[in-house]
Amino acid sequence: MREYEGMLILPAEADEALVSTAVDRIAKTIAPTGGKVDTIDRWGRRRFAYEIARQHEGYYVVVRFQAEPSVQAELDHTLKLADEVMRHKVLLLPDKAFEKAKATTSPASAEA
Q1: Are strands 2-11 and 55-67 parallel, antiparallel or unpaired?
Q2: How far is CA 96 from the centre of its chain?
Q3: Would you tell me which of 3, 18, 46, 107 could form a disulfide with 14, CB atoms 3.0–4.6 Å apart?
């Protein structure tokens, strides 16, 4: 299992039901392979830097989940077809081992 973080942009007038629908799509896509949703962070309405689909604001939701790498393409396809999702991005979070190795490397040893 790998850890992922997905950001969804929903229409600005999104209510709790619409947010739940989008998160349920993620859960249903990753569940068959043993994946699970860890956290759901609702950022709320934010103004866009540029217009998207003739809208100036969107409702942002960040979802952290665990899934198999093979499910990422299917999840991308599912979110692309979802009517309630304006934009989405799914990122693979770095391994904890990678983070630990990066933290133990000091600037002094990098210069040597």
Answers
A1: antiparallel
A2: 18
A3: 18
